[in-house]
Amino acid sequence: MADLANLPDDGQPRQFPVITDRVDAWTGYDAEPIGAVYVKREKGSDTVEALSATCPHAGCFVEMDKESKCFRCPCHNSAFTLDGGIVAPSPSPRPMDSLECQIDKSGSILVKWQNFYTGIEEKVARP
Asked: Model's pTM, two decimal places?
């Protein structure tokens, strides 16, 4: 992922790809991108927050709109604050999905990647 020392403490989310080995029914793929996360930390803080870049409405990729200082989904115009909250009016049934994260002893940021069901109010992890 990234090191805490390389994540500025300015409250601005930074996008990072989620890369892992993947296996489907017949083939294995090494180091495949499977999604993305936005990670940020506040001024003077050593804790980080992570949000999935997948829109909870229909699963499209949420992009950061630096001009309006919010996240936007290009598929159906859902909008979210930089903390992941819904900006009304929005077709998204819930805020952006937060992800568990921690800093290991070496200073690396570790994010627990999960996919969640889209289109429902409740945040439910996919198996």
From this structure: 0.90
